[in-house]
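tool_call: predict_structure(chain=1)
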Amino acid sequence: MRKIYLLLIALLVITCKTTPKPTLPEIEFLEPKFEVTSIYIIQADLVVTEFEAVIKIDNPNNFAADLSSIKYELYGNNHFWSDGVADNIFRIPANCSSETKFRFKMNFINTSRKLLDDVINMRQVNYRFKGQAEVKPDVPKAAVFNVQFDCSGFSDVKRKATD
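tool_result:
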């Protein structure tokens, strides 16, 4: 009887070692590029102003990708402006770009005078947009990629036309 148990255990060990584990498909993933294309003033109050930033994301891959979330920090003229998480799920077509919008607020009391002056006078702002995004390639059983991004440039500050 003992030999039967040993034989069963040996078969289980061999079976467990030879069972192939499912693997995710290997794909060549090129990280998307992020850019702030515009910053709009939505509503200006005495102390707090609400803005809308438009972010362009370029997908250099030969497959579409779903952007499921962005955790970001936004700086203006080298001073902290806003941070947050955007959970807008949208698709970026293969070898294309898409834009998304998110809103943020600026409290004038906590803002540098230079940034405040540039916003009030609707001048270009030197921005830095950095953070992390979750990107899911539109490939069956592909893994989700956590993409770090850090981009900077100049963006005009404009008043958004009323809808």
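agent: The CA atoms of residues 24 and 141 lie 6 Å apart. Proceeding to next step.
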